[in-house]
Design a protein that fits this description.
By secondary structure, this protein is mostly helical. 73% of the residues lie in helices and 0% in strands. The chain has helices at 2-10, 17-35, 42-49, 53-60, 63-73, 75-89, 96-112, 117-128, 132-156, 162-181, 184-188, 201-215.
Length: 226
């Protein structure tokens, strides 16, 4: 009981809790996205959020719990992608292009938004530079969705083994992740292309679609190109 009273006595004012709690999570998301999970300390997160280090643990627990909380907070993006995938497959003539749109568009929209920029970068970084600590969270959050998209590609291309559809999914993921984090395109295009330009989204979707169709070819009569 004395410990409970002491904790309550040092707890932040109730009116400020939501803002502080959200600020800490946003700070962690930003720093993890910029430097990687293992390179960021609790003290750095606290400094970024403008709170005492003790409050980080008070609200979110250990660093790995905060990492998990970030992905849980954005779970709606995964749900949106799965919902779009179901809608595409329920259509009269689902195509690879439909599946790729469901796969990529919500992520591209998130990357272009001020609220989702750091989360999109965090996902891209941790999927590319995964470690055992972060991989557990990524497997929990993203593997079920990945299986759903691989199953969808296999449904559209049943003449190929599912394992080949898994390769196609991984290649598609590589193109999407690179686009999320790339800034070199501005230099390579002599300044004509802007990194993460929303106008490039249809081009990327068409590119991924063509790549999957090349990896999982089928007679032209089975699908009309978008």
């Amino acid at each position: 009981m004395p410990q409970t009273r002491a904790r309550r006595a040092h707890a932040p004012d109730a009116a400020s809790r939501p803002d502080r709690k959200a600020a800490i999570l946003l700070a962690a998301e930003k720093l993890f996205a910029q430097y990687g999970y293992h390179a960021v300390s609790i003290r750095q997160i606290a400094a970024e959020a403008g709170v005492p280090p003790a409050l980080v643990g008070y609200y979110w627990g250990a660093k790995h719990e905060m990492f998990h909380a970030i992905f849980a907070h954005w779970r709606s993006t995964i749900d949106e992608r799965l919902s779009l995938l179901r809608a595409a497959l329920d259509g009269p003539r689902p195509t690879v292009h439909d599946v790729v749109q469901a796969f990529a568009e919500p992520v591209l929209q998130l990357r272009a938004s001020p609220e989702g920029e750091y989360y999109a970068l965090l996902v891209a970084r941790e999927l590319m530079y995964r470690t055992p600590d972060t991989d557990r969270v990524l497997a929990e959050m993203f593997d079920p969705m990945a299986h759903a998209f691989i199953d969808a590609l296999h449904q559209l291309r049943p003449e190929w083994p599912r394992a080949r559809a898994a390769w196609a999914y991984q290649f598609a993921m590589g193109a999407l992740l690179h686009h999320l984090v790339d800034y070199r395109v501005q230099r390579l295009s002599n300044g004509e292309n802007t990194p993460n330009d929303a106008a490039a989204a249809p081009l990327l979707i068409d590119f991924i679609t063509a790549g999957i169709q090349a990896a999982l070819p089928t007679p032209a009569s089975k699908e009309t190109p978008p």
